[in-house]
Specification:
elongated, 31 helices, transmembrane, alpha/beta, 4 domains, Nucleotide_cyclase, five-stranded mixed beta sheet, Beta-Lactamase, Alpha-Beta Plaits, EAL domain-containing protein, 838 residues
Length: 838
């Protein structure tokens, strides 16, 4: 069994040698001696049960063995002093009673006591020689037995003294006998850590003293015997208590030793497995107990750090200055003030590191300051992450420009400054012209590089009262301290010239422009939100002027915007209140004058506004997304009406590009056809050329699915905008509608006539029918008929009329056509309208 100082717990704990353990001394008393066993051995025996309930059996057994060894160790250490005392007392008895008692007894007592004491000294010496070695349970049991034998021998030897000397001595020597007996009984305190040793020594001594005093035949002897016995009982009970306390003290010492070693192992593992490390200084603020982990983070050896100032550790060297946070930590240490999670910056050449330190002052048992102890961790990685997060919170990661959050802060401060300084601050709201085309054509990678290039051109303007921001997408903002509109306009012109220059990105030449909306504070707005809103209104007007334009906010823009918001609200109510209605304009065949199709045209009659033109409300509906709901209504209503017409007459419905690109568009058409029973080949979808420019997957899918369903596709307003013949070949349509702008001048403009002839020739080659819009005169109709135009549409035959007039129009148009073009009209068709529409 190891000594208490060697007893370990944890992975490295020393285990007792696997020698079989003999029954302990208390165990050998047997079941009938249970009470005596609990009285004699209050430590191991009395506490075994509760300890076993709290500690693993093997661990508890080790604690008991270590504690019993500690008690034996303390008893044998005191044996030297006790042995010397016994020899001195034996010599004194020999001298004091020489001539008063038998010389042979006195010499015999001296020899026995001296011999036994020498044996005790030898046993203690032998134990000390084995103190640094592991001792088994058998070794400890042997030590207990030897100690008990020595004690019983001494007790028996001294127990004969009162019997042999008290009766034959005078009163003075009798008092000396009683005093010596009482003093020897007190020796139980010295050998008390092991209660059994004190007991086997004291009981023979008390028994002999009682007999010696009681058999003297005198009353005083009997009184002394009783008092001596009471005194001995008190000593034994006191020794029992001391033995219990000794056991608990030694057990606690063993546990503390184990805990210290466990804590040491855990702290070592803690330093090895985490980025944290422990530090400790002495009273002078110099390192004490430097761990390898501390040396590692400092980039020095343990020996070099040991005893060095903590201040030099924070600075990275004795000749270096402290970084941010270092002086504060040293001030707290000098003030003996605990601190927690204090961040210290440590410049290390080109790299900067950050440590987070916590510490508190340490004091000894007497309350004297002994230094500081604490924990540190390298938080460089987390600090860099925090800095990156902070950067992203205020700056745009793509361009490095300040973002919308910083714009809000700066705009707020500039508005407040302008309000009291008498100067102005202009907000220039920038939107790139043509960026979407570059992004869609060459990909987002080129688009991102283009944005970075634009930011690089704007970045040099930062400073001197000018701040550049990226608000998102292709929108930028510039705040400028100025003295009025003229300075803001000058900067806008400079920005337009700067941004509009061509870009070369990955061998791609990109051409873009920029539109600028300008608003000033305090002239136009006094807070950031209003300033941005008014600059946005000005930007909207600038873009309407054309690319590369700027516009300064005027109050009428706000009036226009307010009217637009009111119109948006009225459109929403119109949808909910079914205020929208359809009128139908006929398309007439130039071959025979019959109506072949009706185009459904949306009308809105508002109770307050009266009749509202589609030119006014359709763009607003498209901008707000309400066009999708309106488009569904038009499809359902047009199909429902067309189902009542003669089967040779189709219905044409204009579809907004925004509605055409929605994922549920084809399903909406299928639902309208299914609910009304209209044949798909009687529905004609009119789209503009802008649909073909948007070559997204959903656009192409919708086009192919519509043609697959048998629905006819008509290209409206052909000849305007981005007319191209390539998409006519890739996506063949069923009809082309010539825009009214060409038809209007057909009889007065050779250019218009040439365009129409070209369109008709192409359509004939591709087998595509052609409808001419806006025909208003018979001369225009004759020119178109002569050049094989398929159909005409216009006021010459009928404006758009309500659904209730459809059948009358079908009957009337052939007659009107015959009057307009009498030579070309073969005959008046008999209309089957009444029968079909019945």
């Amino acid at each position: 069994m190891a000594s208490p100082r060697q007893t370990k717990t944890g992975p490295g704990a020393a285990r007792p040698r696997p020698a079989p353990r003999p029954a302990s001394l208390p165990g050998r008393l047997g079941a009938t001696g249970g009470r005596l066993r609990r009285w004699l051995w209050p430590g191991p025996a009395a506490q075994a049960a509760p300890e076993a309930s709290e500690t693993a059996p093997a661990e508890f057994e080790r604690y008991v063995l270590a504690t019993r060894f500690g008690q034996l160790d303390e008893t044998l250490k005191l044996a030297n002093y006790s042995a010397v005392t016994h020899v001195i007392v034996a010599a004194a008895v020999l001298v004091f009673f020489w001539g008063e008692a038998s010389a042979s007894y006195l010499i015999g007592l001296f020899v026995v006591v001296t011999t036994t004491s020498c044996i005790a000294v030898a046993a203690a010496w032998a134990h000390r020689r084995q103190h640094s070695e592991s001792m088994s349970d058998a070794d400890i049991a042997l030590g207990y037995r030897v100690s008990n034998l020595i004690a019983v021998a001494l007790g028996a030897a001294w127990g004969t003294m009162p019997i042999a000397l008290f009766s034959s001595s005078d009163s003075d020597h009798r008092m000396l006998v009683v005093a010596i007996a009482a003093g020897l009984i007190a020796d139980a305190y010295v050998i008390g850590p092991i209660l059994s040793v004190a007991l086997v020594f004291t009981v023979p001594l008390v028994a002999g003293s009682f007999l010696g005093l009681a058999r003297s035949g005198e009353l005083i002897g009997a009184h002394l015997a009783i008092l001596l016995t009471v005194y001995a009982a008190f000593v034994l009970f006191s020794v029992r208590r001391m033995s219990h306390l000794s056991y608990q003290r030694i057990l606690d010492r063993v546990r503390v030793s184990d805990q210290n070693e466990t804590i040491g192992l855990l702290l070592h593992e803690f330093e090895e497995s985490t980025s944290d490390w422990l530090w400790e200084t002495d009273r002078a603020g110099c390192f004490n107990h430097v761990s390898p982990r501390v040396a590692q983070v400092a980039g020095r050896t343990v020996e070099a750090l040991q005893g060095s100032p903590f201040a030099a550790f924070l600075a990275g060297g004795a000749d270096r200055a402290l970084g941010a946070g270092g002086p504060e930590v040293l001030a707290l240490i000098r003030g003996r003030t605990a601190f927690r999670d204090h961040v210290v910056e440590l410049p290390r050449g080109e790299e900067t590191r950050w440590w987070q330190l916590s510490g508190k002052p340490a004091y000894d048992k007497a309350g004297r300051f002994t230094g500081f102890r604490g924990v540190g961790s390298d938080i460089t990685a987390s600090r860099k992450s925090e800095d990156r997060i902070a950067f992203l919170a205020s700056y745009d990661p793509l361009t490095g420009l300040a973002n919308r959050a910083l714009f809000q802060d700066r705009a707020t401060s500039e508005c407040a400054r302008a309000a009291v300084s008498g100067t102005s601050c202009a907000l220039l709201y920038l939107d790139l012209d043509g960026f979407k085309v570059v992004n869609d054509t060459f990909g987002h990678g080129v688009g991102d590089q283009l944005l970075r290039s634009v930011a690089a051109r704007l970045q040099p303007l930062n400073g001197e009262g000018v701040w550049i921001f990226r608000l998102g997408g292709d929108e930028f903002a510039v705040l400028q301290r100025c003295n009025g509109t003229a300075e803001a306009i000058a900067l806008a012109e400079r920005l337009i010239a700067l941004v509009s220059a061509s870009y070369l990105i990955d061998a791609v030449k990109a051409e873009i422009g920029v539109s600028v909306g300008i608003a000033l504070t305090p002239q136009n707005a006094e807070d950031p939100e209003s300033l941005l809103r008014k600059a946005d209104l000005a930007l909207y007007r600038a873009k309407a002027k054309g690319k590369g334009s700027f516009y300064v906010f005027e109050n009428e823009l706000e009036v226009t915007q307010r009217a637009r918001r009111e119109l948006e609200a009225d459109i929403k109510l119109a949808i909910e209140r079914n205020e929208l209605a359809l009128h139908y304009q006929p398309l007439t065949s130039l071959r025979d004058g019959r109506v072949v199709c009706f185009e459904a045209l949306l009308r809105w009659n508002n109770p307050a506004r009266g009749s509202v033109s589609p030119v006014e409300f359709i763009p607003v509906a498209e901008a707000t997304g309400m066009i999708v709901a309106i488009g569904r209504y038009v499809l359902r209503q047009a199909c429902r009406e067309a189902a009542r017409w003669p089967r040779h007459i189709r219905v044409a419905v204009n579809i907004s590009p925004i509605q055409f690109r929605t994922t549920g568009f084809v399903e909406d058409i299928a639902a309208a056809l299914a609910s009304t029973g209209l044949d798909p080949d009687r529905l004609e979808i009119e789209i503009t050329e802008s649909v073909f420019l948007d070559k997204t997957a959903i656009t192409m899918t919708n086009l192919n699915e519509l043609r697959g369903m048998g629905i006819r596709i008509a290209l409206d307003d052909f000849g305007t905008g981005y007319s191209s013949l390539s998409y006519l070949a890739k996506f063949p349509v069923d009809k082309i509608k010539i825009d009214r702008s060409f038809v209007r001048d057909i009889n007065s403009s050779d250019e218009s006539l040439a365009v129409i002839e070209a369109i008709l020739a192409i359509a004939q080659k591709l087998s595509i029918s052609v409808t001419a819009e806006g025909v208003e005169t018979a001369e225009q109709a004759r020119i178109l008929k002569a050049r094989n135009c398929s159909d005409i549409q216009g006021y010459i035959l009928s404006p758009a009329r309500p659904a209730g007039e459809i059948f009358d129009i079908i009957d009337r148009i052939p007659q009107d056509f015959a009057r307009l073009l009498p030579a070309e009209a073969p005959r008046i068709w008999a209309s089957p309208v009444r029968a079909v529409g019945a």
